[in-house]
């Protein structure tokens, strides 16, 4: 397959995954033994739709006074260069060391990422300048907002590395899906194989929900026993 | 008193307590020496009205890989059986060990509980599938949302036991009241005796608030000294 | 300068600072070596506008059963006296020891502070009686809500002392600014000198944001290199 | 097999496991997919030897003032009854909710357990009366010591239930092994099958350590590549 | 009573309380409704004997860069003045905000306190210069050691105020008792009345421990039922 | 200066710094504005002397099930390769994400590092196999011990990167000093300049301590006022 075809396939896959709830995707990952894939602390602050794209990782370490000086933002390879390097279609995932009192991005960085057609930002720490972020409108998942910039407590340590974010390992290129329940890491090796079963799970659970509303008990229905499965298959075939 | 009368009395008491703010009820419990009755972390995610009902307890312990397998949901006496067993009028209280990255319930379980006329769910951990929970509409108090299901980090351990929830002990049958300030445990032995003084406290505080708005200082007014109490009694008698 | 002139100057300064985002003010403080000035945990619960005023400090310590009795509210110099003593134009800053399960104020105390023309309340713990607080309408920043009153877990320890609040030191008279990003302590000694550079920073960042939207990379733009600075100055002069 | 034979087999297995480091046993559990088996926080306070035995579980929930009264120790089925019920050869595992300021046992309870030939106590909270515990000499793993008794913050909730302890699930009868590295839960279903491979791992690692001391690099040695494995097998056969 | 007699009575009381385990004293406080009296985190670092004396309180708040400058130690009324003011026979109790990375005292301050005949130091944060502290030999309870001085993260805020220390309220003059189980606050109002019952409790528990060693079950023995109490009284009278 | 001379100078500097308490070095760093240099959580587990050497950094991120498989230790560039790469004279500093339930090294890795003449290991998480580590004898600072290996909760992410460790930023080549008070990062740029003033501070503090023991108050003595400084200089000259 050519590189262009690869990219198109990835774009199509991401569009498909973005339509599946992270709750469903997480269940599919767990069926494959992958439990530690949820990014804790990152809740939706900006945006209304789910997003999906490959991770572009940014890493911070604790601040140290010889590095957390205002001029550090202008050092070669500093945080602005990372923002400029984020590729279109990606999701920027920021390891802020879980720091809630130092904002790793605000409206200007978010504005730049939006211009670069980044799909959104996921961060286990704080965002800053919430009104400005709302004006920009780039989707954001973070653990609240704060006033101080990143040098208020963190040192930028680079981009494109494996990181920890909210208790989950994130490797560059892992597929990130984020919706109202939060943000999930889908290792790229399984991203392709879970789309179809996840969609099927969603169809099945819609059917289950209708049965629940009719007053059916959960035992035997969900998870489905053999009788329920047969009933569901009949229903599917009848459609 | 017959069992039916008992049930009717309890239903009436719960309806009465649901109209009293948890802030007021907590003050009344503290007057009786009961401080450790607030369920920390559980904030309102779904619903607009206060709820009140006897606790139906559900308990989780930390997940272990030989138990947190997808098929465990179908084991006899597993979580679906607990949901089926929740009695009408009760409040389901879930001890999720404070785990914020494993959702102990989503829209299907909430849908089942709604059909069973449960009044709401209170949980010291996370809910999942927030859009689905909103469609169902059953009132929910929880410590945020996440994507993974319970087996992402927890093992179901049974129902109907005394539990800890958000730092409070909850015994089956304790009265749970939940509103915008959060969720409160009212031990059943005192539930009956605090309704009247709590209602009176609310009336008094409404009168105090009016005095405050007139510019009266707090000292002597709230708490009330003898003069203020006399003034309040006169006001009450004059009504 | 006379005391009246002093007060008027402070009032004017506070009005000016209230129009500057805390994100910008924090950057200016950090330029002056002041990083530990953000009040962690206090997020906006009530209000829509930013506030600014000198701090009136209130201090709590952990509760102890011989002090956390309902009658303690009526002891001489207790919490109601503190509320009565808060001066007009001030911001009441409460060191609640970070306790999220004991509400240090509710609608009656907030109502009293509103009558006293206090600008708002900032607390690193919980508020209580959220519907009542909304009726009063005094701006509030706190770490959530709860049902229990302060004696549910805290002992009032006095007012007018230096305190810690959300990890920041707050001295009486420090300038507090609070907006959607949270609450910031501006030591009074630097409050005057940062207003102008902060306003200039805001103008510059508005210009930067426009350049970002035109597609300009961040490197060289933000922070600005010599060429960007010259371009900005030309733009400013051309206005 | 008769019940007596069962008991003897279990006793022999426990004696065997007690001679294997928990570090080695944990590696064997992880090879079988069992990671969440380490009891966090419980470090050795009393004793010098490793212990191993089936778990006898004791459960606490947060304290509530109507239950945490001194007379509660005399209620039927209270904590003293649990201590009296602990079987010889067992390890008492206490879920103290991780509370470090309420001691769930002291010298008298430990003395009773010693008389009952319990092998030791493992607790994710605090012990109390350290000098008394040293006099008794029963091995103890706990997260420090404190002065208050359990009713200082906890309510006894029963024994013989599945519990969480230090982040691990513990079921009655699970095999507990504790040594200087801490305490480990070995699910009974795998306890028998890991003894032999764990012993072999220990032998292999002793051989590896000798190679390391000779200056051999780790890559290829540990984990062993094919050449190293052959060398080790030759060495074993030559003995 | 004269002031001298008062002081002598207090000294005698402290000597008496120092001989009673904090575990026993805590039980007596709980019988009087006082649970929140244990200083969490402060474990014995230096010393071998228990200490008891009235609290001399020292308070820190979070560090802020305009205050945490090396020269601040020389400001009037700074930390050295607090050390000079600690009275003979007192226990210095330091509210370090639970900060474990900023040492509020080292060997020089401890040396000064020893010269002043202070009985010991209790701190909910870190000590520093452990070898120096050992040379000085003044008893110390703290939550570990660290290298940085207090200005590495804290600001001194004064002495002689009510403080929180390890989750307990401490008022100047409260009686502090510290032993191997940790440090306990005995409110001065009850200090006198608990000595005798605590001593009696110790005698009773010594007798209980002997019965336990003879193999007696705990139920009925501890807590004692009527028969056990009679037996104990006979035993006491027979001595 | 030649590379050999550089190395010899560094070795000599490290030997010199190892003789200065970290408490003193931290004070010198703070005088130069460097506060965030203490590695929290890492306390001495093995060894009796202080160590000093340039940092060799090792980084872990949260574990993920597709990476935390036993065979991962044999992947190219995995943890054993990092151990083999640690240079003689260095201090291995491990960012274990603060995880206390997954041991990043045990006796075999420590044995290899000892053979490589590494000076010691500093880790913000747990060590494992404490008896084995004692046999090896390489100095270790860590936040306790545990049974599980690193793959029990962590994924190895590489070596030679800037890391966070116990809340401090550590860059490869930073000078690490560790003693009984814990472990300190000395940025290489200031390592040379602080040795002499730190030694002088130690001499001065020894003189101060003698004055304290003579009964001198701290105010005026420590920090020294002009008179004290003159007295100290006289004393120094008289030696």
UniProtKB/TrEMBL annotation, chains A, B, C, D, E, F:
<feature type="binding site">
    <location>
        <position position="129"/>
    </location>
    <ligand>
        <name>Mg(2+)</name>
    </ligand>
</feature>
<feature type="binding site">
    <location>
        <position position="128"/>
    </location>
    <ligand>
        <name>substrate</name>
    </ligand>
</feature>
<dbReference type="Pfam" id="PF03737">
    <property type="entry name" value="RraA-like"/>
</dbReference>
<keyword id="KW-0479">Metal-binding</keyword>
<dbReference type="InterPro" id="IPR005493">
    <property type="entry name" value="RraA/RraA-like"/>
</dbReference>
<keyword id="KW-0460">Magnesium</keyword>
<protein>
    <recommendedName>
        <fullName>Dimethylmenaquinone methyltransferase</fullName>
    </recommendedName>
</protein>
<dbReference type="InterPro" id="IPR036704">
    <property type="entry name" value="RraA/RraA-like_sf"/>
</dbReference>
<dbReference type="GO" id="GO:0046872">
    <property type="term" value="F:metal ion binding"/>
</dbReference>
